[in-house]
Amino acid sequence: MNIFDIIGPVMIGPSSSHTAGAVRLGNLARHILGEEPKKARIILYNSFASTGKGHGTDRALVAGILGFLPDDERIRTSFEEAKKAGLEYELVDGGSKEKLHPNTAEFFLEGPENTTRVVGASVGGGRVMVSSIDGFKTEFSGEYHTVITIHKDIPGIISSVTSCLSKKNINIAQMRVFRESRGEKALMIIEADEILPEGIKEELERINGIFRAMNISPVY
User: Which residue of 72, 75, 104, 124 has the lowest C-beta tally within 10 Å?
Assistant: First the structure.
């Protein structure tokens, strides 16, 4: 049982789902981008759109993109902090979407070198679930040390990645692979029990067929 199941997250704000969860979503989107974001377009859906402003969801999402954690006092002034950091952001009311979780946000982030589109939801108690990364359907909670790769769907890629982790004594807790279609682009999520070593991103990106790798630490 996770300690959050018992006492909930340490946080700033009135709601674990609308504030703490929103910060974690923004922070995960930032880590998936893999660099300092310069522009952000955030679309809020369902409850996030209708009641999020009163719960500080808008400020929390921006705070997460800036790299703040759920207990950071600067969440309250995240709009001002974004201006200081040179982050251009836009918050959009996406209205009601029945197929989406009530607390859903969609991020379009742009950095100096990368862009990404991330869709995720705050599922309660400060927990989150990322359901889409750059168009790939996913299931990613951000609760483990995680490696994400975008690669060509060809034989040998998965074994090359797992072999690399094995040589570094990294134990795989969970692994999921999602693909566009056979032989096209695929996305792999590997959640590990141990802290992933520095340089693992660059090492994986040297494997033939891997377009991009991400090393994402848990966001509490």
Answer: 124
Q: In what order do the strands lie in the sheet with 103-110?
A: 88-93, 39-45, 103-110, 115-124, 127-133, 136-140
Secondary structure class of 191 (helix, strand, coil) = strand
Band (pLDDT 50/70/90 cuts) for residue 18 is low
Q: Which fold has domain 9-140?
A: 60s Ribosomal Protein L30; Chain: A; (3.30.1330)
Q: Which residues contact 33 (CB under 8 A, 6 or more apart)?
A: 109, 111, 114, 115, 116
pTM of the model: 0.86
Q: Which residue has the tokens 């910060």?
A: 23
Looking at domain 145-216, its CATH superfamily turns out to be ACT domain (3.30.70.260)
Question: Are the beta carbons of 18 and 7 closer than 8 angstroms?
Answer: no
**pLDDT tens, residue by residue, 53-89:** 777 899 999 999 999 998 899 999 999 999 999 999 9
Q: What is the domain partition of the chain in residue ranges?
A: 9-140, 145-216
- Chain segment 137-169, per-residue pLDDT in tens: 998 899 999 999 999 999 999 999 999 999 999
Structure token pair of residue 97: 């979407």
